[in-house]
Amino acid sequence: RKHAFTSSAITQSDIRRVTVIGSGQMGSGIAQVAAMKQHEVTLVDVNQEALERGKGYMSKSLKRVAKKKFPEDAKAQNQFVEKALGHVTLSTNASKSVSNAGLVVEAVVENLKAKQNIFVKLAMEAPDNAILASNTSSLPIAKIAAPLTLSQRKRFIGLHFFNPVPQMKLVEVVRSDEVDQKTVDDAVAFVKSIGKTPAVCKDTPGFIVNRLLLPYMMESIRLLESGVASARDIDTAMKLGAGYPMGPFELCDYVGLDTIKFIVDGWYKEGAGLKGNKLFESSKKLDELVQAGSLGVKSGKGFYDY
Ligand code: CAA
Ligand code: NAD
Fold first, then answer.
1. Spatial separation of the C-alpha atoms in residues 70 and 74, rounded to whole Å
2. What HEC string does 203-216 produce?
3. Which positions make up the binding site for NAD(+)?
4. Structural domains in the chain?
5. Is the ipTM of this complex over 0.90?
């Protein structure tokens, strides 16, 4: 125990430079929480518009945090926001952004090929001791890392954050069979350095939280489709009857319906031990909403209008 603490205390200061790939809901949140703890962050996306949207998410969330930290002190609030944003550099040049990174966290769309392409390129351009991490919700960590060299795979890990990142305290640290113990220790130390609580978990579909959450979400949609109750009444029931902060439809909209569909489709088709499991079969309602571009809060419409 003592040894683990000592080694994390040392490595904690090692990861000062963090590059986050993807400035969507999750990437901007990860960048924000690292910047709030004075890490030097580079946030990358494919174009300036996406980066500006990410910056908008960060500013809005930082203002909420600042208001709580410094109630009635507008100047201190502004300083807090500006200080955190000052630790974030926005970039569309992924290669350059990783050249001196200690940690690269990928948070782009939930698509295996997209993630593999990013790591094949960036793993060569990052320093050869950098930790490579994916925020994937559902894809096997070993599969994302499969095209990399063994030395890169030993530094490859899952760092699974939760939405909204600034508020949710958990990060699942997902270890494949090939990852080095040092990588796991350093990742755990990083998670603690940004004020989050790690839960280390094996590389299995859904890790811990999503393995339990997705069946709940899908069963909620099936309950709605069967006409048992309205979305609003199911949400009210789970909030007031089970003490959940959000009902299942509020949560689906919050996570993003495209992301939910990517997750269940992937598992239904080829999830280890989950393939063909009816719990993970998509549903008509989910398919229709995603097809129509109604992806939830981020697109202004999902099960509800925003
Ligand atoms: N940034 C900063 N602070 C935020 C925030 C944000 N984006 N969103 C909420 N907060 C803070 C608020 O400032 C407030 O702080 P205090 O309590 O300290 O005043 C607190 O969170 C509560 O917010 P609200 O009062 O506005 O609303 P709420 O009580 O409904 O809480 C919530 C909002 C925290 C999002 C809560 O509804 C919740 O926990 N919902 C469930 C979220 C969840 O389950 N997330 C996991 C999704 S699954 C996932 O992420 C994994 C995946 O791979 C798909
Ligand atoms: P999002 O749609 O909000 O953002 C994705 C971003 O990635 C977009 O800004 C897009 O432009 C960018 N992007 C796409 N390809 C890119 C590339 N090649 N290089 C750089 N940027 C690129 O999605 P999100 O909700 O932030 O989810 C991102 C990842 O996090 C997914 O793997 C998802 O499964 C996972 N995740 C999501 C949640 C959630 O609740 N939404 C929670 C935990 C994990």
1. 8
2. CCCCCCHHHHHHHH
3. 22-27, 45, 110, 115, 137, 163, 298
4. 2-202 (3.40.50.720), 211-299 (1.10.1040.10)
5. yes
